[in-house]
Amino acid sequence: MTLTIDRARELMNQFSQCRLLVVGDLMLDRYVSGRVERISPEAPVPIVHVTSERSVPGGACNVGLNIQALGGQSELCGVVGTCSHGKELLGHLEKAGVGVGAVLQDPKMETIVKTRVVSDRHQLLRVDRESTDIQPLVDSDDFREKLHCGLQGIQGVILEDYGKGVLQQSLVRQALDYCQEHHIPSGLDPKDNHELDVRGITFATPNRKEAFTVAGLRDKTPDVDPKSDENLHAAMKVLCKLWEPENLLITLGPQGMWIHEKEGRDTHLSTRAREVFDVSGAGDTVIATAMLALSVGAKFVEAAELANVAAGIVVGKLGTATTSQEEILAEMEKSR
In the chain, where are the structural domains located? Predict the structure, then answer.
């Protein structure tokens, strides 16, 4: 690792000057926790005695929360309903300081809600509520005006794709054209079943599964050392040709990250996680941290190293989580 604690501190001290726009699918994550003591006599399923319930912003919202937790300023652009779930989600975001001025509220939209039933840290069931087709809302003049307003005065744009319909091609091009015109960084956290033309983007952060799926290749060597993994390198080359990103960061779970920089340099970063409880939301932390660092002048490898430390912290927490500058510096101090 080349990033020193002093350099990390120097970069993070500037995060408060950054306002980033996150465009993507906004969701509400609900957690129903309880004890399982017996199986139901009605069907072979566990009976959960509920002990607690909570809700947190999920999907692209979690990227906004990560930015705020790291000391930056985030603005969201997406669609929610006027239902109770939509109001609950906006309430959480406003309380966290996340900007929602570019969020379109529409009565035709069913706010996306993912409800997870959990017992003893194990997820037993997930129930999803969502609109089946939100393309007409995204294509509307009202939403394009929301995006236009959200882009004003920002220092970076994150395209956060959960495959729920917000990231339509015309919208993506509108955001990327603005970034290129104003010389600000752009980032993509892709979904493996959604093809987008993002040529010219500053960086993309697919995980291994997404990288191979988008590249149209089979992952035959998931456990091979990334430095000698020819299949991984082949997938990387396909993505570079398809997306034409300035930089590419492939997250590899327990194997860390593989980075390809615009100069042609490849770097493998080993995982920073000590104990993994939950990988959900780790990709959100990666792109939020990397974009903040890039927006304050970090080299891409520095941004990736900082993101690697941050991701190693959040996977040690249960559920969608965030980390802070203090936790990152403490983690780097321990690894000295």
Answer: 5-26+60-110+132-334
Neighbours of 115 (CB within 10 A): 16
Quick one: CA torsion of 66, 70, 72, 77, rounded to 10 degrees? 0
In terms of Cα–Cα distance, which of 241, 242, 235, 236 is closest to 220? 235
Active site residues per annotation: 284
pLDDT score, position 279:
67
CA angle 300, 303, 309 (to 5 degrees): 140
Q: What DSSP element (H or E) covers 160?
A: strand 156-160
> Could you tell me the CA-to-CA distances from 207 to 47, 54, 90, 213, 304 in Å, in that order?
35, 28, 29, 10, 14
Residue keyed to tokens 């004003």: 152
Mean pLDDT, 10 residues at a time, the chain of 336 residues: 92 97 96 94 95 95 96 97 96 97 94 94 92 87 96 97 92 96 96 86 96 94 93 96 96 92 91 66 92 97 96 81 94 86
Helix (H) or strand (E) holding 169: helix 169-182
- Using CA atoms, how far apart are residues 11 and 72, in angstroms rounded to an integer? 12
Q: What is the CATH architecture assignment of 5-26+60-110+132-334?
A: 3-Layer(aba) Sandwich (3.40)
**End-to-end alpha carbon distance in the chain:** 10
Residues 6 or more apart in contact with residue 152 via CB below 8 angstroms: none
